[in-house]
Amino acid sequence: MQPGNNYPQQAGNSGDMSTLIGKSLGQFRIVERIGSGGMATVFKAYQPTLDRHVAIKVLPAYHAKDPVFVKRFVQEARSVAKLAHPNIVQIHDFGEQDNITYIVMEYVDGGTLKDRLKHALPVPEAVDFIIQAAEGLDCAHRNGIVHRDVKPANMLLRRDGHLLLSDFGIAKILEESTSLTRVGTGIGTPQYMAPEQGMGQRVDRRSDLYSLGIVLFHCLTGRVPFIADSPLTITVKHLNEPLPVERMAAEGVPAPVIQVVQKMTAKQAADRYQAAEDLIEALTGALAASHLSLPRLYRVAPPIPPATGGGSHPGTLPNQSSGSGVNISSMPSGSLAGTPVICFRCGASNPSSRLYCTTCGDELSNPRASKDTYLVNGRPVLARLTLQTGPESLVGRSYRFHQDVTTVGRTNGNDLIIPGRSVSRRHARLWFSEGHWYLDDVGSSNGTLVNNVRIFQAVMLNDGDVINFGDEIVVFNITYGP
C-alpha cells in the first residue's frame, strides 16, 4: 500500500475491480485502488464538481449477487450517513451503476492509527486518540449502531492528528425486528474482540468499549495483550487470561490510566464502562490525576505563524488550571465587596468577585493579554462572543477573548463554560492566527454550526457570524482592546 493510504488492505483476488481505474461511477472518476477488505474494495476517486478527492467503497461482484449482502451494504450507507460527527468518516453519496454498488466517503490522507503503532505512544497522545474514538462511538451508540470491529486499522488519521472512525461495514442497527441482526456471526478482529463477541453472543456498546480498551493497551505498550497461532486460541485468552498490566507499568503508564484500561477490558460487560461518555470522563480524570494533559495540537488548523509572530504557536494551549474558565451560568451580575483586583489590561480597579473587568471587559489580571501581539492602529484584535440563548439573565451578555486559544465546553477546565445540555464537555476551540479568527469543533456530540452550516474542519470567522454550540447560539464579533 502506498504511503498515505489508510484503508485496510487484505490479500485476495480483487477480480476485475482493477478495470474500474480511469472510469467513472456517477460524477466520480476512479484514480487508484487504495485497499480492500472483507466487504468491499476501496478506491481513491476525483469529484470535479467540488474539486476534491473522495474514497469509494465498491461491492465485489460475487457479493453483489447476494440480495442479503446487498441489503446489508445499503443499510450501512444509510445508517452511517446519518452519523454526522467529526470523529466518524463522512458519507457523501451512495449509488449503483452497471450492477456496481458503491458508497462515496470522505478521503483521509494521513494514514491509520495502526501505522503509528510501531512502538508505544506517549500516554497523552494515546489517550487523546482513544478519547476521539470514544467521541465517535458515543455518537454511533446514541443512534443504535455498534461498530463491532474497533481496531487501529479502522481509525483514520488526518495529518494533524484528528481521528476518524471508519469501516462501519459490519455495524448493525440494534433492532431485533431486522433480519440482518443475527447473533453469533463472529464478525470482528480476534486480537481486539470482546469475549462475548468471540463466543458468538449478543454484543452492545460495551463490546466496542472493550475493543477500544485493547486498542489503548496497544497504544500504550506497542503490542496487543494476547497473541496465538489461531483466532480461537486468542478468543480463549480474551475470555480467561487476565490483562498483562505489567506491560503497561513497564512502559511507565501511570496507575490511574492503567485502572481505566482494566475497567474497559473487564471480562464481564457489566463490569466495564457502560457508555462512551463515562469512559471519556474517566480518561480525562485519569490524566488529571497523573498530572498529564492532552496534547496541545490544532486539528485541521490553517497556517499558524511561528512563536515570534502574532497568534498562538502550534502545540500550545493557554496556561490554565482546572475550573478556571468563565462559567456563564454563575457570573455575578453586580459588584460585591472584597479586595480590589487590578485589570492586567487597562489598570482599572474591580471587585474581587468579578472575573471580567467592568471597564474594558477583559479577564482580570490575565497574562493572556500578553498574547495580543497582532495590532491594528496600535490596538489588539480581540474576539467577542455574545450569548443569544439561555436564561434571561445571560441573553445578550458578551465576553472578550485574547489572541490565544479559547476552549468552549460544558464542564470546568474550559475557558468558556456553557451549561446547556446539548453542549459537549469538550465542544469547540477558537483561536487567532495571521490576522484572522478561526473556529473548529473538537468532537462534540451535537455539532458546531457557523451561519447554520455544520463545520467539520477549522473555518475562518467573519464579523457577525452566528455560531451554534449544539442548541446554544452565540454571535461572533471582532473587537479591539484598549
Structural overview:
The chain has 482 residues and is α+β, with helices and mostly antiparallel strands. The chain folds into 3 domains: 20-107, 2-Layer Sandwich (Phosphorylase Kinase, domain 1), CATH 3.30.200; 109-172 and 190-295, Transferase(Phosphotransferase) domain 1 (Transferase(Phosphotransferase), domain 1, Orthogonal Bundle); 372-480, Tumour Suppressor Smad4. 22% of the residues lie in helices and 22% in strands. Strands 14, 15, 16, 21, 22, 24 and 25 form a 7-stranded antiparallel beta sheet that branches. A 6-stranded antiparallel beta sheet has the order 1-2-3-4-6-5, covered by helices on one side. A 6-stranded mixed beta sheet has the order 11-18-17-19-20-23, with no helix packed on it. A hairpin with a 2-residue loop joins strand 19 and strand 20. Helix 4 (123-142) packs antiparallel against helix 6, helix 4 packs antiparallel against helix 10 and helix 6 (205-221) runs antiparallel to helix 9 (255-264). The radius of gyration is 24 Å and the shape is globular. The termini are far apart. The model is unreliable at 1-14, 170-186 and 296-338 (pLDDT under 50). ATP binds at residue 57.
